[in-house]
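Q: I'm writing a short explainer about Molybdenum cofactor guanylyltransferase for a general audience and would like to include a description of its predicted shape. Could you first generate the structure from this sequence?
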Amino acid sequence: MKIDRRAVTGLVLSGGLARRMGGVDKGLQPFGGQPLALRAAQRLQPQVAAVAINANRHLDAYAAWGWPVWPDADDRFAGPLAGVLAGLRSAATPWLACVPCDGPHFPPDLVARLAEETGEADVVMPVTLDPATGQAQPQPVFSLLRCALRDDLAAWLDDGGRKFETWARRHRCVMLPFDQPGDATAFVNVNTPEELARWAQT
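A: Of course. Here's the predicted structure. Afterward I'll give you a sentence or two in plain language.
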């Protein structure tokens, strides 16, 4: 069963500490002439009914772009799942599609392709193939999730859980192959200043 984009809120995850980038607010770093998180939000907007941004610093800067800003519930910086929880709790739709701010080349049809495979799933997660090794690589921070998972995720985080894929696999999780031309590099994350500079040229 395919779900309509009107049933999906898109969330850009920009709430981390970006330690490998020197602790700067990664979502505000320039990429191709605009901040990373702004680029991600604009790329996501045509794919969903509404867009929001998860951020924990410089909230006024993010809010100036015109989308809602949903911080984590506390100041633990508990990783991307804490941002996902903020989205699951705040979205007015039954589904949430999340993308990280540091994945500037995610597919422009990401949500549509994930939505084709919902069925009875609670989570639909892209899986790519490493071009060097041929190994499958789940891409959990680009997932489509039912917002009804909010209470379960809150309990998981309270118990100290942090790994996205581990939590997702506790539910009805579809691992969807993304094997079209270009998919192998579409989910690249920029985690260092050197990677930011290199991928900005592609």
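A: For your explainer, you could say: Residues 5-199 form a domain with the Spore Coat Polysaccharide Biosynthesis Protein SpsA; Chain A fold (CATH 3.90.550.10).
Q: Perfect, that's easy to follow.
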